Every structure is written in structure tokens, then in C-alpha cells.
């Protein structure tokens, strides 16, 4: 009784009637719904592929056809079969040739003398499942590539052992100023200010010692033009084309940090201004207020009032100097912080 109830579309390229009949019998033993197409030589197979009437799941290929054989036959059939796995059926037990045929894109290599319904069915199912997995991996790699290369943030992949760059996206090239060819000859140390390299290497060592798959932090990077930027780093281990690597997002936060620094400086000046207003201004103002009482007292002599006026003038000049100093500090604070004294561009 057939093991597989799904429909199979299979192309058998075989010139020998007896071998074709045996293959057909084996397939019918295992597959309930079978659409079998036969080509007796290479030209017939080529015509079938060109007509595009069928989307074949599997191609079974005999290597000894009347009009083409061996390696040239494999190359052409693999190319024309597109995504359909090609299983070679041959009467020649040549191990080296079998290995070479697999390297040319053949999915499996079976000797006709060892062929059974079970071995043929197993090979078909195995190669179809492998095709599904390969397709899924291909889609996954495509999605990764799109996310990586279309990201607006600079991203790069580096080899964990050598620290050499393996790939960078367009945003990285644009932001750092290197060409892709240049950066792929470099390593991570070369985009660090020289005195920061020991700190960077220590961070890598700590990640390795603590077996951290994900690492993050703020570091300084060096652009091609010599500009030093502050970047927020997030890295994860990945398998990149068989290499142990890390994919990294590098967000430039230089402007943000400079803005915070300016705000902190401005706040410090405002605190100083506040202290001056509450302490330095109070002294001459208190003296003026005390001296005014002399003029209110009718018993005060003219000489005493004259002296009081001199002190009032002295205190007024002192108060004027303090106000000028406060005004100057306020202007400096406004110059340090672009949000002071200006309209909000986002309002």
C-alpha cells in the first residue's frame, strides 16, 4: 500500500524501457497520486522543460543517454530543473564520479543495482524535505539581508576571533566615510582612537569570560575624516557564512551627549546666578534700605544725611555691578543652551 498520499510530479529521463518500467513500479508502490512524465533522451527532456507545462517535484536522471552523457548532461539538467532536486540513477559504481556529480548540484546518487522501492522513496522524500529547509534558510537569509542593508542605523558584522569586518550596510558607509572595499580590509581596532583600544579589548575579554551572547555600551569611534563620535553599541553573536561573528548596531549619540553636556553647564551657571541673586544682591540692597531710614528721621543732621547719601551712592554702584555680572552670566548661559532665548523650532 502506498505510503504517501500527496500528489507528486516526477520527470524520469531514461532511455531504457526496462529501467523505466522498474522505476515506475517502485514509485507506484510508495506514492498514491503520481504524475509521471518520461523523456527518452536529452533533447526530449530539454523540450519538456522549455514547454513549462509541469512544475516537477523531482527529476530522476539516467546518466547514459543516447545524445548526451556524464558531466555535461548533469550540468544542463541541473540548470534546467531550476529548484527541483535531481537524483541520478546510474549503473556505474564510480565513487569519485558520484562525489563530483554531487558537487555539481545533484541531490542524490543511486546505483541502479541497489535500487529498491524503499530506497528510491526515501531518497525522494529526503531531498524534498532538504529542499524545503534550504528554501526556508534562503528566505531567512534574504530577510536578514534586507533588515541589515536597509537599516537607517549603521550596522556591521565582524569576525569574533580576528575582529575583521565581514560586512557593513549602506548607512555605515555613509556615516563613517569609508568605501565598502576599504572597510572590508580593516578590523575594529582601526575605527577606535588609539588610546581607546585597550579599553575596547578589555570589554571584549570580559564578554568572552562571562560568556555573554549580547553586549552593549557606549564607546568612541573614529570616522575616516578623523572625527571622533560617541556610539551606543549593541552586538549579538551570529553564524556568518560558517564563521563565528557578531552583528552590531552602532547608534551615533554624539549630538545627544553634547546637548546634555550643554544643559548641565547651563544649569550650573543658573545655580550660580540664583546664588548671586539671593546673597550678593542682598548686601547692598539691605544697606540702602537702612540708610533711607536716616532721611525719614527728621532729627538727623544735615551732615549725617550727606554722609548717608555717599553710602547710598556707593551701595547703588555696587548693586549696579552685581546686576551687570548677573546679566553677563545669563547671556553666557543662553549662548551655551540653544533652547534659551530662542523660539522652539518644534513648536
Mean model confidence by pLDDT: 82
Instruction: Give the CATH architecture of the largest domain.
Output: 3-Layer(aba) Sandwich
Write out the strand line-up for the largest beta sheet, numbering strands in chain order.
2-1-3-4-5
Category by helix and strand content: alpha/beta
Instruction: Encode the helix/strand succession as letters.
Output: EHEHEHEHEHEEHHHEEEHHH
Strand content: 15-25%
Stretches where pLDDT falls below 50 for ≥5 residues? 338-347
What do these coordinates show?
- Residues 338-347 have low confidence and may be disordered.
- The chain has 347 residues and is of the alpha/beta class.
- Helix 1 packs across helix 5 (117-150) and helix 2 runs parallel beside helix 3 (70-81).
- Strands 2-1-3-4-5 form a five-stranded parallel beta sheet, with helices on both faces.
- The chain is rod-shaped and about 145 Å long.
- It contains eleven helices and ten strands.
- The chain has three domains: 4-141, Response regulator (Rossmann fold, 3-Layer(aba) Sandwich), CATH 3.40.50; 151-252, PAS domain (Beta-Lactamase, 2-Layer Sandwich), CATH 3.30.450.20; 256-336.
- The chain has helices spanning 17-30, 42-51, 70-81, 95-103, 117-150, 170-176, 180-183, 197-209, 254-280, 282-296, 302-336; strands at residues 4-13, 31-39, 58-62, 86-90, 108-111, 155-159, 165-168, 214-222, 228-240, 243-252.
Amino acid at each position: 500500500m502506498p505510503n504517501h498520499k500527496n500528489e507528486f510530479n516526477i520527470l524520469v529521463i531514461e532511455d531504457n524501457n526496462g529501467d523505466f518500467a522498474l522505476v515506475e513500479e517502485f514509485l507506484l508502490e510508495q506514492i498514491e497520486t503520481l504524475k509521471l512524465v518520461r523523456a527518452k533522451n536529452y533533447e526530449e527532456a530539454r523540450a519538456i522543460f522549455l514547454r513549462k507545462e509541469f512544475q516537477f517535484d523531482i527529476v530522476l536522471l539516467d546518466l547514459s543517454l543516447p545524445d548526451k552523457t556524464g558531466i555535461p548532461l548533469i550540468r544542463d539538467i541541473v540548470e534546467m530543473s531550476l529548484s527541483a532536486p535531481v537524483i541520478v540513477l546510474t549503473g556505474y559504481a564510480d565513487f569519485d564520479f558520484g562525489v563530483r556529480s554531487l558537487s555539481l548540484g545533484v541531490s542524490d546518487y543511486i546505483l541502479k543495482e541497489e535500487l529498491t522501492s524503499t530506497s528510491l522513496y526515501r531518497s525522494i522524500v529526503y531531498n524534498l524535505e532538504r529542499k524545503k529547509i534550504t528554501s526556508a534558510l534562503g528566505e531567512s537569509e534574504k530577510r536578514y539581508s534586507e533588515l541589515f542593508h536597509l537599516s537607517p542605523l549603521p550596522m556591521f558584522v565582524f569576525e569574533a576571533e580576528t575582529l575583521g569586518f565581514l560586512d557593513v550596510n549602506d548607512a555605515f558607509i555613509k556615516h563613517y566615510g569609508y568605501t565598502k572595499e576599504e572597510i572590508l580590509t580593516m578590523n575594529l581596532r582601526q575605527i577606535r582612537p588609539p588610546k581607546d583600544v585597550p579599553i575596547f579589548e578589555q570589554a571584549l575579554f570580559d564578554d568572552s569570560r562571562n560568556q555573554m551572547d549580547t553586549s552593549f555600551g557606549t564607546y568612541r569611534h573614529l570616522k575616516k575624516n578623523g572625527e571622533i563620535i560617541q556610539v551606543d553599541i549593541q552586538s549579538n553573536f551570529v553564524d556568518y557564512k560558517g564563521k563565528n561573528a557578531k552583528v552590531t548596531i552602532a547608534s551615533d549619540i554624539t549630538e545627544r551627549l553634547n546637548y546634555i553636556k550643554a544643559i548641565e553647564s547651563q544649569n550650573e551657571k543658573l545655580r550660580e546666578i540664583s546664588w548671586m541673586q539671593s546673597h550678593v544682591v542682598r548686601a547692598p540692597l539691605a544697606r540702602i534700605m537702612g540708610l533711607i531710614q536716616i532721611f525719614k528721621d527728621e532729627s538727623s543732621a544735615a551732615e549725617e544725611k550727606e554722609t548717608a547719601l555717599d553710602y547710598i551712592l556707593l551701595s547703588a554702584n555696587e548693586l549696579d555691578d552685581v546686576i551687570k555680572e548677573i546679566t553677563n552670566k545669563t547671556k553666557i548661559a543662553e549662548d551655551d543652551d540653544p533652547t534659551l532665548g530662542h523660539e522652539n523650532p518644534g513648536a
